[in-house]
Task: inverse folding
């Protein structure tokens, strides 16, 4: 007797968990959890208790995150890591005693000399925190007291594909779930008509033939595809196949869905396949998205003073500025993870010119986004992260002339900054040597950053696991340490 | 048996009650139970524990899964991680005394409760309890009881089930022998009987024929095919269709579309700018090989070592392209050796997954934590694939980096007539395997890293499976192929038949087709698995068509998919197959069904991959302005828009959305099981992807134009064409009333309303399922 019950319970529980859609469609299933409410519930908060992993492990500081990924590797030495000594030593060779066998990319491994080069841009100290920021980022400088700079980031990867895959999935080789998918899996959705993990792309002006992105960066890996990042595009169809075909009204669609549900229920009665109910729910979620996505993407009602805050590109769809406004709007609708990618930071040559446009793409909108979140009270529980996959070398790649220099990829030290959600504002962490090559204090590895981000969501990164092919996987693999010094 | 019946009845009445309790108290379930369940994405033996009502604890099935999952990390095969010198994956480990105290035994068979194992798992002291709290591993109460009972029952150890070779089991007896068509059914019904389950009656003809068509060809039957079958009352009607389908060209396409996931086939190189590569002639060979029914041993041997066979033919060399399907980088600036090591590792891992069903990649960085595969053994296996005459970093834009094979028009006249070279080109070059002149030394790489070589190793295979016979086999890929097909290899046949079983029943007899090791699932019906393995290898001599015919001729395969309440209570996941498991169609089948039923399908075999319609901008928006030859997606025109989905061009960093949305893998690496999900993105695609709308329009127009047919009959024909089934009266009334409502609301013409109805039917759950 007891055995049978247990078995039945287990089977159902397992079925339930297999199907519990926590990402896209999360809520549709959330309402299915309660058999008395099924079909009636439109309560946007009923997914909040949808918690299969016993998460969070402790009280969270963050509910949502906007990750402003700067693809290509921004030059920390021209933006945030102020090294006047480099200007003094301009043209002298990087000593091997400093380089210590660091492997080089194929772009500079053939170079006979590694002439040091300082930034062409001036640096200023901002705010009470006296943070150094270069003239390339005046708007970011002005909000320095909101920001936490980590100047001692480091990674192992020296090329774009493995480095960016590592940042987003915790592994240099493709196949693992992205950070956003992990969060969708671990924490579920906060809303019932949008995906919990949304991706926005923009192309920078810094390097016309820049580095590509890969859809695996927001892929679900071995997690259920319910947790994949959903790209919101500036194209006619913001989500693939979202729009009804021409001539089909919303009303006709509704009719079709009603009949579809009735006919599918017939099937369910005849085959007894419980998956059918799930699929009916997915159609309902799709239908809701058809309204909620365009509504969220429509910025026509944003007041002028807000649009002005984000700068001249704010109303050009598909720009970084426009995506920053979208990010805020998605956060307001309780999308959990908004992942932006801005391409074009790979300045191997002619850096002083290229980085100018690239920085101005992001400077004003980034600052505006953070302040906009703040004025709406959202920064308290929204984490903002800004940074790339690695840094750039303190020595010149290619010809060093009076006006021009380039920088190669540098994995040993680079800068990211964060704001909001329990991260120390007006704070700078970690230090590099006086020529900006090695970290001399408080290193932060990519896995440490990932662990710290998860920590703000109330997740112990060693405990959020998924068993795949017999092994327990984590975003941080078997590494990572929460950097408590970064936290309030 | 009697007891079981009582349980069934009681269970039946209690379902609604339990269901409500479950939902209501979901949040009160203890966290440990929860984590253990939620991390389970596949069925594991633990699931079956509750089924074990006999009381007898079996080491392999009940005990080892617990030890493996919760103890082997520190007390398993990995010598470097081993604590206290204790090994619980070997027999002697259990019966030894503990290291610090010779009087204490891990397992004390005389006085079981004195066993250190029991003392440690039932322990409140945080410094003594096992597993230790910092491991984040927790034994559930059920697991503790199992371990304790096993020791009380005498703690009998057994070698791992999959490491000894399959013998021919006796055909079991069953009360349902009248139901049985062939041996498979005896194994299935005997198991059903022991669980208190009953097999289902034969499926309705119009449903079973659609099932069969999809499974053997990936395409639906035409209305004509269905009608002929319904009319044909001869005893051989079904078998004749089986034979017809097995000899159709579509059979090879269906089989190839599965093999392409395993072989990680793609039309681009897969890293960074992800430029085009040419491998489609290899795909054409796979289709050809399946269609000519190349025996499985040759099918594999040619792919692993075709280039090295004595007097290798061009066809055999072409087949070896299999192990060049991995990703290759052209990203300027990488360290070439770092990537070459990745390619070699990918070949080793893919080959082992397909042939041995083992996760040997775990042993790349350290000895395997769960299975007895050492760090050295990984690199011994790796060394078979380490001599390819290749570059780690290829020239930007190169479509077939060396070693490669040029196929000319001359070859097509003769040996390679199956390569579908378009008229516009004279020859094609693709990647294949070839050894370097000076063979490379292989070293164990510390932490698996290219720049940390340690000890030199020789080619070899995991000893626990079958030691490599150096005397009779050359220490190269030819020898490795011989090892795979050695009579004593315990895994090759089991892994192969399990994968074929999965193709037909959705889930393998071992639910983890890529893990037959300690952490994998245990076979739900071990005797059947071994019978199938033995039969495929010894009786059918690796004749795949013959073997597949056995499966589809069985009553197990042909039974009804309608679930019965009395079965659901006992086996809600239908693991024992008391009914045919209803399954979602694959991504390829869903699209191909729309193309075929609407009459738009261009059923042409092979040739270069094609670019059907996809939303504009998907490729260029991620190129960052660069991107080489594949920067922009330019859809094909004409016939190529309507080819079968297995020919869709596969750019790995932006795979085709029409496939990805329906759970196709990225093809970045070998995948043996696809996910099965339902998402709103799928609903949107079926409702709004122009490809489906076009199909709906096309089909409805074709039917609507027929003269002298009542609208009702038109609706029936539409429904039957798409779903294969005649709608019942209720359904027909609903379809008709939708048709009329849409017409009225929108002031549509009959024809336009009929198209709307057709869209609805393409969106039905039934359309995307095989029942």
Result:
């Amino acid at each position: 007797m007891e055995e049978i019950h247990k078995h039945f319970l287990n089977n159902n529980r397992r079925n339930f968990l297999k199907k519990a859609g926590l990402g896209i469609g999360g809520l549709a299933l959330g309402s299915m959890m309660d058999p008395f409410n099924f079909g009636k519930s439109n309560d946007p908060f009923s997914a909040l208790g949808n918690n299969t992993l016993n998460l969070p492990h402790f009280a969270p500081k963050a509910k949502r995150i906007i990750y402003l990924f700067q693809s290509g590797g921004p030059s920390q030495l021209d933006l945030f890591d102020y090294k006047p000594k480099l200007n003094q030593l301009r043209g002298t060779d990087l000593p091997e005693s400093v380089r210590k066998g660091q492997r080089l990319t194929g772009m500079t491994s053939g170079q006979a000399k590694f002439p040091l080069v300082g930034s062409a841009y001036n640096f200023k100290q901002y705010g009470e925190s006296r943070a150094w920021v270069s003239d390339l980022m005046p708007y970011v400088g002005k909000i320095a007291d909101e920001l936490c700079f980590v100047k001692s980031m480091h990674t192992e990867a020296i090329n774009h594909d493995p480095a960016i895959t590592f940042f987003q999935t915790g592994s240099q080789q493709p196949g693992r779930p992205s950070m956003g998918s992990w969060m969708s899996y671990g924490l579920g959705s906060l809303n019932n008509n949008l995906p919990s993990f949304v991706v926005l792309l923009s192309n920078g002006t810094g390097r016309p033939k820049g580095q590509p992105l890969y859809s695996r960066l927001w892929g679900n890996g071995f997690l259920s595809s319910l947790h994949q990042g959903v790209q919101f595009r500036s194209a006619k169809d913001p989500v693939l196949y979202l729009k009804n075909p021409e001539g089909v009204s919303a009303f006709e669609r509704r009719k079709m869905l009603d009949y579809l549900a009735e006919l599918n229920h017939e099937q369910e009665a005849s085959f007894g396949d419980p998956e059918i109910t799930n699929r009916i729910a997915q159609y309902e979620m799709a239908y809701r998205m058809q309204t909620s996505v365009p509504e969220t993407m429509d910025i026509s009602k944003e007041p002028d003073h807000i649009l002005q805050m984000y700068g001249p590109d704010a109303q050009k769809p598909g720009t970084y500025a426009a995506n920053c406004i979208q990010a805020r709007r998605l956060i307001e609708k309780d999308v959990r993870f908004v992942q932006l990618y801005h391409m074009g930071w790979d300045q191997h040559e002619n850096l002083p010119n290229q980085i100018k446009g690239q920085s101005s793409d992001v400077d004003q909108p980034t600052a505006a986004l953070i302040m906009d979140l703040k004025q709406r009270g959202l920064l308290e529980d929204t984490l903002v992260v800004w940074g790339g996959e690695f840094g750039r070398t303190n020595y010149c790649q290619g010809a060093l002339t009076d006006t021009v220099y380039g920088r190669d990829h540098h994995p040993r030290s680079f800068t990211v900054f964060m704001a909001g959600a329990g991260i120390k504002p007006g704070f700078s962490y970690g230090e590099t040597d006086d020529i900006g090559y090695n970290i001399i204090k408080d290193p932060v590895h990519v896995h440490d950053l990932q662990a710290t981000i998860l920590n703000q969501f109330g997740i112990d990164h060693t405990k959020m696991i998924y068993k795949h092919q017999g092994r327990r996987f984590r975003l941080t693999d078997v590494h990572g340490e929460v950097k408590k010094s970064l936290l309030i | 048996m009697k007891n079981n019946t009582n349980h069934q009845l009681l269970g039946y009445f209690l379902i609604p009650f339990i269901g409500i309790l479950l939902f209501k108290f979901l949040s009160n379930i203890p966290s440990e139970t929860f984590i253990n369940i939620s991390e389970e994405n596949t069925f594991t033996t633990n699931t079956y524990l509750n089924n074990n009502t006999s009381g007898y604890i079996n080491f392999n099935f009940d005990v080892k899964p617990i030890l493996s999952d919760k103890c082997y990390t520190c007390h398993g095969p990995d010598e470097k991680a081993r604590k206290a010198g204790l090994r619980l994956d070997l027999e002697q480990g259990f019966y030894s005394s503990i290291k610090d105290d010779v009087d204490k035994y891990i397992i004390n068979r005389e006085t079981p409760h004195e066993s250190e194992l029991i003392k440690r798992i039932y322990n409140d002291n945080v410094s003594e309890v096992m597993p230790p709290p910092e491991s984040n591993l927790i034994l559930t109460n059920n697991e503790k009881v199992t371990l304790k009972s096993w020791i009380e029952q005498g703690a009998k150890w057994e070698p791992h089930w999959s490491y000894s070779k399959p013998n021919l089991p006796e055909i079991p007896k069953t009360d349902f022998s009248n139901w049985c068509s062939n041996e498979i059914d005896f194994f299935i019904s005997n198991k059903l009987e022991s669980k208190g389950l009953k097999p289902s009656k034969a499926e309705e003809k119009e449903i079973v024929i659609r099932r069969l068509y999809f499974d053997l060809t990936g395409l639906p039957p035409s209305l004509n095919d269905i009608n002929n079958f319904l009319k044909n009352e001869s005893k051989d009607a079904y078998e004749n269709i089986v034979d017809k389908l097995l000899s159709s060209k579509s059979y090879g396409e269906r089989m190839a579309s599965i093999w392409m996931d395993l072989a990680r086939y793609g039309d681009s190189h897969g890293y960074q700018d992800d430029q085009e590569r040419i491998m489609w002639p290899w795909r054409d060979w796979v289709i050809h090989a399946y269609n000519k029914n190349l025996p499985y041993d040759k099918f594999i041997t040619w792919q692993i070592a075709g280039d090295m066979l004595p007097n290798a033919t061009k066809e055999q060399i072409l087949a070896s392209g299999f192990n060049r399907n991995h990703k290759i980088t052209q990203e300027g600036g990488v360290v070439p050796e770092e990537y070459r090591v990745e390619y070699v590792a990918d070949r080793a891992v893919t080959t082992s997954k397909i042939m041995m069903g083992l996760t040997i990649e775990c042993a790349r960085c350290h000895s395997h934590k769960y299975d007895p595969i050492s760090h050295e053994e990984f690199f011994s296996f790796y060394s078979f694939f380490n001599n390819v005459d290749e570059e780690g970093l290829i020239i930007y834009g190169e479509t077939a980096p060396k070693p490669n094979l040029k196929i000319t028009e001359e070859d097509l006249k003769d040996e390679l007539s199956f390569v579908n070279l378009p008229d516009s080109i004279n020859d094609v070059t693709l990647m294949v395997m070839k050894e370097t002149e000076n063979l490379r030394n292989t070293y164990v790489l510390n932490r698996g890293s290219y720049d940390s070589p340690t000890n030199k190793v020789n080619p070899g295979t995991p000893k626990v499976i079958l030691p490599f016979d150096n005397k009779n086999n050359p220490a190269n890929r030819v020898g490795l192929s011989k090892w795979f097909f050695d009579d004593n290899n315990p895994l090759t046949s089991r892994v192969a038949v399990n994968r074929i079983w999965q193709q037909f029943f959705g889930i393998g007899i071992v639910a983890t087709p890529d893990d037959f090791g300690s952490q994998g699932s245990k076979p739900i019906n071990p005797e059947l698995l071994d019978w199938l393995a033995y039969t495929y290898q010894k009786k059918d001599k690796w004749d795949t068509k013959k073997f597949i015919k056995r499966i589809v001729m069985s009553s197990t395969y042909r039974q009804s998919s309608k679930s019965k309440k009395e079965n659901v209570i006992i086996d809600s996941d239908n693991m024992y197959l008391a009914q045919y498991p209803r399954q979602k169609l694959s991504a390829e089948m869903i699209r191909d069904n729309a193309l075929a039923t609407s009459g738009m399908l261009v059923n042409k075999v092979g040739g270069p991959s094609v670019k059907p319609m996809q939303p504009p901008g998907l490729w260029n928006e991620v190129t960052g302005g660069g991107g080489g030859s594949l920067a922009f997606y330019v859809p094909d025109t004409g016939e190529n828009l309507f080819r079968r989905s297995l020919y869709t061009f596969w750019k790995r960093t932006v795979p085709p959305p029409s496939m990805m949305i329906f759970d196709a893998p990225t093809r970045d690496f070998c995948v043996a099981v696809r996910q099965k999900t339902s998402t709103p993105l799928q609903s949107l695609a079926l409702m709004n992807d122009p490809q489906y709308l076009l199909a709906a329009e096309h089909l409805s127009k074709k039917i609507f134009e027929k003269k002298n047919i009542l609208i009702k009959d038109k609706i029936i024909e539409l429904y039957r064409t798409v779903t294969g089934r005649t709608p019942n009266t209720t359904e027909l009334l609903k379809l008709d009333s939708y048709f009329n409502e849409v017409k009225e609301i929108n002031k549509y013409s009959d024809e336009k309303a009929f198209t709307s109805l057709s869209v609805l039917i393409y969106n039905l759950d039934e359309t995307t399922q095989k029942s």
